[in-house]
Fold this protein.
Amino acid sequence: MFNKLKEIYEEADNIIVFFDVPPNNKLAVKSYYNFIDIVKRELPYYKNISVIPIICIEYYICKFLRAYDYLYTKNTVVSEMVKYAVVDFRYEEILKVLPLNNKKARQTIEKVYKYIIANLELPCMRNEFKYLPNTKIRDNKKMWGAFYEKDCNCYQVTYAEGYNYRQIHCDIKCTDELRLKAERLYCLLPVFVVNDSNSVFIKEIGIRLKHVGIQDVISKMQIFFNEICDTMGEPKIYVREL
């Protein structure tokens, strides 16, 4: 990851690195601390870098889907998992609801959020893709994952001989553009950077902007991880300032 950081680094930039740190994934926790040590060691050469731990990006995708009424499921197990993993974090209840044969999700919390997304009703929102037979080439005719890559245009109104015909292929009747969805998700992260190219649009879609210092973000995430680790019975994760 640090090689990628060096590749995109520009001295004039403020760079924020979001690092997945599921509390019950020991390897991820160790990797986070190791990455922090590497960045600290290289700081004389690479400045204006902040590393912010998050549970996993799927956690924020789930919050995004629910916050904007995209999340649609008829699966009672998924609904219960959303209730206990997204709305109000209650790890014991998650384990009660989680299918017993899903060993991966029982081992590390990010798999819980992956499970939720993978089992949503609409295939376009599932975190998986379909490939052409015997290849690694994406089959663009399949809808899997399309919600995150293109404008929503499955719900359309057509006109013929003076009559309106609604072609309904989307249970939530979503017509949102990709840019709108992307900015909504982006602004749910613990901190985000705005500039002239996106600040006006973000305000236009009703998202309030507030300036925060990186220390405020670190303090907020430390409280967040304290609560999550305590609920899960896992060792405390230290959100380190560089």
About this structure: The longest strand covers residues 15-20. The beta strands are 15-20, 49-54, 155-160, 163-168. The radius of gyration is 20 Å.
